Amino acid sequence: MPELIFMTYNIENMNRMFADNQVKEQYRERAEKIAAVISAVNPHILGICEAANDPEEHAHFIEHYLPGSGYELACGSSRGVQNLVFYYRDPASPVAIDDGFSFYDPWQEDIDGDGLKEYLTWERKPLEAVFKIGAAGQELRCILVHAKSKGIFSVVDLHNFENISLGNRKKLIGQANRLRARLDDLLKQPNSLPMVVMGDMNDGPGYDAYEMKLGKSFVETVMGSVFEPGNIFHNTLWWMSQSSATKEDLWTVEFPDPIVENALGYKHRVWIDHILVSPGLLKPESPLRLVEKSGRIAEKNKTARDASDHFAVYCTIESA
Asked: Whole-structure pTM over 0.90, yes or no?
């Protein structure tokens, strides 16, 4: 059976690497390492977070750093300096791009149940693309997500750190609710397409201290409710949590503690890059199926560490 690899990769500040639609001289070595990470997995559909903003920049990157790969670019409206794009290659071809763009316009929602609605936006609206797979023409919807960061990137006192952190979680949960509403709408459609939701979700399993106050988290909200088990999305890296041998490697980014410097240089390691698949992709009779335990984190070698502050995540889907 033909197999397709789906990969999501946050390429840290890719937009800064270009001038006049070419990679700047000081970033050429890094560009080679980014390409090495991509080539090692050789995905058929690659969702890039923090992507370069200009299609000509991607054309240059593909031609000079991924020559012979067959990649083409699928992009919708620009998301700004931290753009979202897909690279795709045979046997995948796009049918629709950004057809859900207006769904992610600003909205109002009461996040914490205090009777007051918050005004919510996406820093980067999710990018949706429908791809046709091979000669059989099976279609699949990919949704690429780069959610609100939990990080605080300004100098603040501890009191404001607490307030901003809680505010960031509220916005994350609002974005999760909005994305989940989109998934529910798509699942209800007649002949609903299988879906892959991928990207930097800036959240991992379980609740952090601020999410405990709100009783929700991003990634678990998007995956779905246990009271609607038929609509729950499957996390392709879930299997790694079931063994001590693989659980230790279940993280995609590391960073120093934002408050206390560790004398031994230890860092937080968190799993915030995900690929989720719709329930139909788990059914043996489906024309497109997730290959069991195919979810992987790309090798965490020096090349990958120099390429980006995130490690890529990928999985395999087979076609009948």
From this structure: yes
